[in-house]
C-alpha cells in the first residue's frame, strides 16, 4: 500500500471511530427520549431533544457515507499507483534491454532512476564510487544522455501524455 | 529494490473492525463483569445495540465486501465451501466465506434477540437511580400489574417477564456457543488458508 492510500485509510479510521461514538450517543439519546415520552408525554423540551437525536442519527449516516467514500478513494489511489508502477517497470525493463545494459549497469541505472547519487549507489551496492561513476557513464552513453536528470526525463517524458501539443498549446 | 506489489489481500475496513471488537468487548463485559439486570449491564447492552445498528447500517451503505449482498446466506455456497474443505482446495472469498457468513447471521440473530428481550425487560437506560427505572418499567411493560415492591423482583416477576428472561438467557447461552464455534472456525480457516484471516480483522497495526 502506498503512503497516500495509507494516510487516507488512517483518516477513514479516525472518522469511523467518531461515527461509532456518535452512534453510541445517538442510541442513548433515543432510548432516553423514548423513556421520557412514555413517562411524561411529549413536550417542547422533549420535542427539541428528539430533533437533536435525529440530527445525531443523520450525522451517523453521513459520517458512514464519508468513510465509504474515503475507503473508495484509498482503493482508487492504490490501484492507480499499482497500474503506474506496473507500466513503469515494464517500460524500464524494455529500455534497459534495448540499450543492452549489463546486469550491473541495469542495477546502477535503476538506482539512478530512483534519484540516488553516486555515493549512495556505491554504498547500496557495496562497490567503490569510481566503479559506479564508470558504470553510470556507460549507462548514459548507451542511453544517449549526458546526465542523471536527462536519464530520468527520458522515462518521464514518455509517461506524461500531453493533450494535443499544438504550436500554441497553453491557451488560457 | 523495487517493491514487489503483489496486491496483498485486504483488511476489513475500519467500521467493520471497530464494530466487531466493540461488540466482542461488550459481550465479554456483560457476560463476565456486570451484574445481570444491573445499571451497567443495561448501559452496555444499549451500547452494543447502537454498535450493532451501525454495523447493520454499514451492511447497506458500506464498501462492497461489507454489504449484506456480498455475504448473503446461501446453503448452496456453504456446501460448495464444505466440498472445498474436503478436497483441500482453498478458494479466495472477497467477503466472509460462506460458512462464516452463516455464522455472522446466526450471531446477529442471537444478538438482536438478546437486545430485544433485554430492552423489553429493562426499559430505557437508568439515568438517575432505581426508582425511575421501576417507574419506566411499569410504563413500558403495559398490561401487567406490577406490585409496588419491584425491588425484590425475582419471585414476583413471573409471566411475561419471566418468559422474556428465559429467552434472554437462552439466547445468551446460544451466543456463547456460537462464539466458541466462531473462534474454532477462525482457527481452522487460519490453519487452512493462512494468517490473512487473522490479519484482516486485527484491531491495530499496519
Considering the chains and any ligands shown, give keywords for the structure.
heterodimer; A: 172 residues; rod-shaped; B: 65% helix
Please give a quick description of this structure.
Chain A is mostly helical.
Give the secondary structure arrangement, pairings included.
The complex is a heterodimer of chains A (172) and B (206).
Chain A: H1 3-40, H2 44-98, H3 103-113, H4 118-125, H5 129-143, H6 148-159
Helix pairs in contact in A: 1-2, 3-5, 4-5
Chain B: H1 14-33, H2 39-61, H3 75-87, H4 98-122, H5 130-140, H6 159-193, H7 196-201
Walk me through the structure.
The complex is a heterodimer of chains A (172) and B (206). Chain A has helices at residues 3-40, 44-98, 103-113, 118-125, 129-143, 148-159. In chain A, helix 1 packs antiparallel against helix 2 (44-98) and helix 4 crosses helix 5 (129-143). The model of chain A has no long low-confidence stretch (mean pLDDT 86). Chain A has 172 residues and is mainly α. Chain A is rod-shaped, with a radius of gyration of 29 Å. Chain B is mostly helical and 206 residues long. Chain B is 65% helix and 0% strand. The longest helix of chain B is centred in the last third of the chain and has 35 residues, at 159-193. The two termini of chain B are 21 Å apart. The model of chain B is unreliable at 1-8, 129-136 and 138-157 (pLDDT under 50).
**How far from one another are the termini of chain B?**
21 Å
Number of helices of chain A: 6
What is the count of β-strands of chain A? Answer: 0
Detail the poorly predicted runs of chain B: 1-8, 129-136, 138-157
Radius of gyration of chain B: 21 Å
The SSE order of chain B reads HHHHHHH
Residue share in helix of chain B: 55-70%
Element order, helices and strands of chain A?
A: HHHHHH
The secondary structure category of chain B is mainly alpha
Strand fraction of chain B equals under 5%
Largest interface: A-B, 38 and 32 residues
What is the number of helical segments of chain B per DSSP (H or I, 4+ residues)? 7
Q: Main β-sheet of chain A: number of strands, strand sense, barrel status? A: none
Mean pLDDT of chain B: 80
Spatial gap, N to C terminus of chain A? 38 Å
Q: Helicity of chain A, in percent?
A: over 70%
- Number-wise, the strands of chain B total 0
Amino acid at each position: 500500500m502506498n503512503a497516500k492510500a495509507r494516510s487516507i485509510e488512517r483518516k477513514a479510521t479516525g472518522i469511523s471511530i467518531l461515527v461509532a461514538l456518535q452512534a453510541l450517543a445517538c442510541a442513548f439519546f433515543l432510548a432516553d427520549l423514548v423513556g421520557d415520552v412514555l413517562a411524561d408525554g411529549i413536550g417542547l423540551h422533549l420535542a427539541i431533544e428528539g430533533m437533536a437525536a435525529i440530527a445525531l442519527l443523520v450525522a451517523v449516516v453521513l459520517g458512514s457515507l464519508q468513510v465509504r467514500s474515503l475507503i473508495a478513494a484509498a482503493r482508487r489511489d492504490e490501484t492507480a499507483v499499482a497500474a503506474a508502477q506496473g507500466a513503469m517497470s515494464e517500460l524500464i525493463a524494455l529500455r534497459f534491454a534495448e540499450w543492452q545494459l549489463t546486469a550491473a549497469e541495469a542495477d546502477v541505472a535503476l538506482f539512478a532512476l530512483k534519484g540516488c547519487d553516486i555515493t549512495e549507489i556505491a554504498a547500496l551496492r557495496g562497490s567503490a564510487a569510481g566503479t559506479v561513476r564508470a558504470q553510470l557513464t556507460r549507462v548514459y552513453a548507451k542511453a544517449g544522455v549526458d546526465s542523471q536528470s536527462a536519464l530520468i526525463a527520458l522515462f518521464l517524458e514518455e509517461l506524461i501524455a500531453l493533450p494535443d501539443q499544438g504550436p500554441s498549446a497553453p491557451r488560457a | 529494490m523495487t517493491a514487489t506489489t503483489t496486491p496483498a489481500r485486504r483488511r476489513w475496513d475500519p467500521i467493520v473492525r471497530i464494530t466487531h471488537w466493540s461488540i466482542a468487548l461488550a459481550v465479554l463485559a456483560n457476560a463476565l463483569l456486570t451484574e445481570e439486570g444491573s445499571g451497567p449491564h443495561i448501559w452496555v447492552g444499549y451500547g452494543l445495540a447502537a454498535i450493532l445498528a451501525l454495523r447493520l447500517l454499514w451492511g447497506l451503505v458500506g464498501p462492497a465486501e461489507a454489504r449484506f449482498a456480498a455475504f448473503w446466506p446461501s446453503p448452496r455456497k456453504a456446501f460448495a465451501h464444505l466440498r472445498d474443505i474436503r478436497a483441500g482446495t482453498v478458494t479466495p472469498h472477497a467477503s466472509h466465506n460462506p460458512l462464516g457468513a452463516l455464522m455472522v447471521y446466526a450471531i446477529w440473530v442471537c444478538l438482536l434477540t438478546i437486545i430485544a428481550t433485554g430492552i423489553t425487560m429493562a426499559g430505557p437506560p437508568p439515568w438517575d437511580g432505581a426508582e425511575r427505572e421501576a417507574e419506566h418499567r411499569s410504563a413500558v411493560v403495559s398490561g401487567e400489574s406490577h406490585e409496588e415492591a419491584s425491588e425484590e423482583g425475582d419471585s414476583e416477576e413471573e409471566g411475561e417477564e419471566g418468559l422474556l428472561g428465559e429467552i434472554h438467557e437462552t439466547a445468551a447461552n446460544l451466543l456463547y456457543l456460537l462464539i466458541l464455534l466462531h473462534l474454532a472456525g477462525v482457527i481452522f480457516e487460519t490453519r487452512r488458508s493462512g494468517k490473512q484471516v487473522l490479519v484482516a480483522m486485527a484491531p491495530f497495526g499496519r
